[in-house]
């Protein structure tokens, strides 16, 4: 199955407890992901579930600081608070939207893509193992880059010629489910696991990097890098897209996407915020250099 669906995608509604039971059972009856059992034991991936805006909101309010890896420069909180002060909204609610949780059964794939709005990403594996493949931004042409919005079919699912098995997405308890456009800017039609280079010959010239994520480990994906993954065991992953001095120019677009509606002066406030973040970034850089 693919986290982002494909031409054979389905959508299911279920509780998280039901998904966990399903993933454990699947790991018993078809841990090897046998091709002949692909239809009988189809994979469903709960990807980019905004759990910290729903059932885990109270936990997030008291524990969000402990989620961020030590030593990582992450200015997202600082700029989210500036945004919330200017737009008079709940900064913690806004910050929670920069975090998500993914639940995967053995064999679930995350399609090759890159994060939206030039964000960095870290992913922390809390259960199971996950194999991740990464490609630098310079490989975009070799990966046959497509804009996510143009790759979405009329049913709201991304189109792909790599639909080799049924795939699904899951709607969790609180119904706060991210849409395709909420997750990525660009996708690749390349499937590394099914004749990718035969269908897309430029892939042979790309420079792949590989990482095995074990329980308790965190992987950093820099801005504009491509990545995809496969779950080797039933697992759970916490994701956080973030901004620092290297990609600060993109955070305004991300913050703008959190607004449910625009007032008469919203555009002017966002422009003021953009300038203030640029000035803050410059001052922060000078402070770090002085230290």
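^ structure tokens above, recovered residues below v
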């Amino acid at each position: 199955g693919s986290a982002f669906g494909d031409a054979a995608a389905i959508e299911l509604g279920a509780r998280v407890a039901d998904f966990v039971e399903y993933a454990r059972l699947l790991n018993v009856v078809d841990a090897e992901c046998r091709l002949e059992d692909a239809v009988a034991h189809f994979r469903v991936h709960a990807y980019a579930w905004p759990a910290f805006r729903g059932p885990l909101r109270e936990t997030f309010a008291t524990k969000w600081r402990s989620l961020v890896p030590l030593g990582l420069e992450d200015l997202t909180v600082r700029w989210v608070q500036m945004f919330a002060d200017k737009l008079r909204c709940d900064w913690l609610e806004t910050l929670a939207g920069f975090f998500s949780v993914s639940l995967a059964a053995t064999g679930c794939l995350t399609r090759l893509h890159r994060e939206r709005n030039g964000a960095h990403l870290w992913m922390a594996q809390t259960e199971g193992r996950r194999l991740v493949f990464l490609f630098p931004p310079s490989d975009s042409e070799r990966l046959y880059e497509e804009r996510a919005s143009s790759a979405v079919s009329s049913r709201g699912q991304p189109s792909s010629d790599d639909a080799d098995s049924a795939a699904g997405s899951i709607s969790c308890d609180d119904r706060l489910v991210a849409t395709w456009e909420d997750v990525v800017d660009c996708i690749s039609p390349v499937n590394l696991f099914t004749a990718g280079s035969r269908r897309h010959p430029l892939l042979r010239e790309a420079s792949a990097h590989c990482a095995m994520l074990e329980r308790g480990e965190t992987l950093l994906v820099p801005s504009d890098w491509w990545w995809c993954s496969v779950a080797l065991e039933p697992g759970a992953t916490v994701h956080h897209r973030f901004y620092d001095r290297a990609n600060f120019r993109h955070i305004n677009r991300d913050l703008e996407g959190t607004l449910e509606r625009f007032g008469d002066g919203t555009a002017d406030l966002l422009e003021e915020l953009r300038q203030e973040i640029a000035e803050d970034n410059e001052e922060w850089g000078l402070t770090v250099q002085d230290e």
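The first strand starts at residue 9 and ends at 13.
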